[in-house]
Amino acid sequence: MNLKDLGSGESKLETTISYLLIIGVALSLALEIAGIAIFYKSHGNLDILLQDKAMFIQGRDFFSFLYQLFARGPMQNTGIFLMTLGVAALILTPFVRVIVSAMYFAWKRDARYTLITAFVLVATTVSLALH
Amino acid sequence: MLNIVSLSLISVLIGFLGSLTGLGGASILIPILVLLGVPVKEAIAAGMVSIIATSSGSAASYVRDRITNVRIAMYLEMFTITGAIVGATITSVIAPQYLYFFFAAFLLTSFIGLRRLTESSGAAPVNQDNVSRWLNLKGSYFDEAKKRVIEYRATNALWGGLGMIVAGLAAGMLGIGAGAFKVTVQENILKLPPKVSSTTSNFIIGMTALAATSVYLFSGLLNLTLVAPIAIGTTIGAVIGGRVLNRLNDKSLRFLFFAIVVYLIVQMLYKGVTSI
What we know:
The structure holds two protein chains of two kinds. Chain A has four helices and one strand; from the N terminus they run αβααα. Chain A has helices at residues 11-43, 62-72, 78-107, 111-129, and one strand at residues 56-57. The longest helix of chain A is centred in the N-terminal third of the chain and has 33 residues, at 11-43. Chain A is elongated and about 55 Å long. The mean pLDDT of chain A is 87. Chain B is mainly alpha-helical. Chain B has helices at residues 4-21, 26-35, 40-64, 70-90, 96-108, 114-118, 130-134, 157-174, 179-188, 194-218, 224-244, 250-274, and strands at 138-143, 148-153, 222-223. At the A-B interface, helix 1, strand 1, helix 3 and helix 4 of A face helix 1, helix 3, helix 4, strand 1 and helix 10 of B.
C-alpha cells in the first residue's frame, strides 16, 4: 500500500499540510510550555489567575494583535510573552494552511479549487480583520 | 483546586474525545470550566482555542494518513464559513431560546440511518451526482481496523453545502465549533464513511473556530492561564486520538459519537427551556 495512491488524490498538498500542521502545533506547544515554566519561576505557583488583567490578551483585530505582539516584544514578562506567542502560533496554523492550499491549487492551475480556496481565504481574512 | 496542571490533564481527555468524534470538544469543556468557576464568556473563548488545538493536533495525523479528504474539506469550508459569518451577524436579532430548539432538532437528524452507520461494513457504493463528480469529491483510505483500503464517493454536494451552512449558522450563533452538525451532514447527506466524516470535520472546525477566536481576542476574553494549558492538553489529547482513531472499528466510533450527540441535545434543550 502506497500512501500516494490514497486520500483525495492531492498527495503533495496532503503531505505539505500534514507537515505544516505538525510544525505549527509543535511550535505552539513548545512556546506555551516554555511560557508556563517561566511563569511558574516568576510566580512560584501554577494557579489560574481569573482576576489578573495582565493575563488577558487583547487586540483590535487578529492582525493588529500580531503586529503589536512583535512590535512590543517581551517587555515585562517573558513567560506571558511566550504563552501569547504560542496562542498566536496556534491560531495562525489553520490560516497558513488555507494560504498554502490556495497557492497549491493556483500553481496546479485547478480553477475550481483555486476559486474555492480563494473564497475561504478571503472570507477568513475579512473575518479576522473585522474581528 | 483547579490549576494549570489539572486543567492541562482535563484538556487531554477533551482533545482525545474531540479528535475521535470530530466534535472539537468545546461543548464538553465549556460546562466543566463554568462548573469550576470560570465566567461563561471566558470559558467559551477558551473553548474556541481548544477547538483549534484539537483540529490542528489531530488533522496532522489524519491528513498524513490520508483519512481526511482535503478536497471535500475545502469545498465544505466555503459553506460553513459563510454560515458562521451570517450566523454571527444575525444572532442579535433572533431570540436565543428558538435557536437552541432549532439546533437540537437538527442534531436529532444524526440518528437518521443509525442502523446503517453502526453496521461494520465498508463504505456503501454511492452513485455520484453531477456536481460531486465535477468537484471530484471522492477518495480512499486504509482502514487499520478492517485491514483494507476503503474507497468512497461523496454525493449530494449541493445539499451537503446547504447543510454545512446550517452547521456554520450554529457555530456563528451559538459560539461553538458545531462539529456534531458537520459530521451529521457528511454522513447523512454526502454519504461519507464515519472515519472520513470525523476526520474531515476535525479539519474544518479549526477554520470555524478561527474566526470566532478573533472576536474573543477583540473582546479581551482570552485568559492566558486558561488558554495555554487548555491548548497544551487538547493538542496532546488530539495527537493521541489521531493515532488511535484508525484502529477503532466504525461501530465503536459511532457509539461514542452518538453518546456525545445525546448529551449535546439534552444540553441544548435544557438551555432552551431555561432561557424562556
